Amino acid sequence: MNKFIDDPNPDSHEKKQIDNYKKRKHLNVKVHKTYKVTKGENFNVEKIDLETEITSEMLRTGDWKTKPFKKYNFNAEANMGHGGHCHPLMQVREQFKEIFLGMGFDEMPTNRFVESSFWNFDALFQPQSHPARDMHDTFFIKSPENCVSLPKKYMKATKKIHEKGGFGSKGYQYEWKEEEAKKNLLRTHTTAISSQMLYKLAQQKEFKPVKYFSIDRVFRNETLDATHLAEFH
Questions:
Q1: What is the pLDDT of residues 183-231, one digit of tens each?
Q2: What is the per-residue burial (b if ≥16 Cβ within 10 Å, else e) of 61-93?
Q3: Which segments of 85-227 are extended strands (E)?
Q4: 3-class DSSP state for residue 39?
Q5: Which of 137, 158, 165, 188 could pair with 169 in a Cys bridge, judged by C-beta atoms 3.0 to 4.6 Å apart?
Q6: Percent of the chain, pLDDT > 90?
Q7: What pLDDT sits at residue 20?
């Protein structure tokens, strides 16, 4: 005679005893499973696609406030990386650098992005009324607004050239202002470094010719779009 055990938890019986009954075909084990289905927190009769990122259109219209977003799973494992890669811009920069160094050039120290208007404009004999020195073309610094010091003797000589000229030039015939030259800005070209290197070379007792180059970041107050940034190399 077969025995039938209607037990939701057959593991509660002695496993060895149950196995013996099974071998002798004296026991049939039946497991009954039931499921209960209820409406979840996000139950809806229609399918709703959850948003995964905030778009510029959402920010413009304000839709991000009401859109349903998919929750981030911070415990999800990411794909294993395969190591870093050199940025294409840095690759090209290094290639150019190696070419110049191989030709006997020295690299100028261009690791300072903030310059004074004097080195960026005045020392290059760009008049203080030039349109490029307006706020719509150049980023000026609010704090600190002015540089600490400038070489007085060289600044005086630069002022003279701007106002009255020299070396065959008539100058710009205007009143050159020191306060305008002291304004700090984000350099608009690395030629601001060139002007300082030329000044340092002029201070040598015995002049020795040198060859310099620079490849670095500069800033212009451009209108940003798909092909223009406010900074470039």
A1: 999 999 999 999 999 999 999 999 889 999 999 999 999 888 888 889 9
A2: eeeeeeeeeeeeeeeeeeeeeeeeeeeeeeeee
A3: 106-107, 114-116, 184-186, 212-213, 218-219
A4: coil
A5: 165
A6: 60
A7: 85
What's the CA gap between 26 and 133, in Å, rounded?
100
What spatial distance separates the first Cα and last Cα of the chain, rounded to whole Å?
92
Indicate the DSSP class of residue 225. B
**Domains in the chain: ranges and CATH:** 1-32 (no CATH), 88-232 (3.30.930.10)
Instruction: Please report, for residues 79, 146, 148, 165, 211, the alpha-carbon distance to residue 196 in angstroms, rounded to integers and kept in the order given.
Output: 49, 18, 16, 21, 14
Beta strand segments in the chain, E: 3-6, 27-30, 106-107, 114-116, 184-186, 212-213, 218-219, 231-232
Confidence of residue 5 (pLDDT cuts 50, 70, 90): low
What's the Cα-to-Cα distance from 222 to each of 113, 116, 225, rounded to whole Å? 17, 20, 9
Name, in order, each residue with C-beta under 8 angstroms of 139's C-beta and a sequence gap of 6 or more.
185, 186, 219, 220, 221, 230
- Per-residue confidence band for 6, with pLDDT thresholds at 50, 70 and 90: low
User: Which one has a higher pLDDT value, 11 or 17?
Assistant: 17
Q: What are phi and psi of 32, to 5 degrees?
A: -105, 120
* Tokens representing residue 132 in the block: 């490029």
Taking the C-alpha atoms of residue 232 and residue 220, their distance in angstroms, rounded to an integer, is 8
pLDDT (average), residues 85-89? 88
The DSSP symbol for 205 reads S
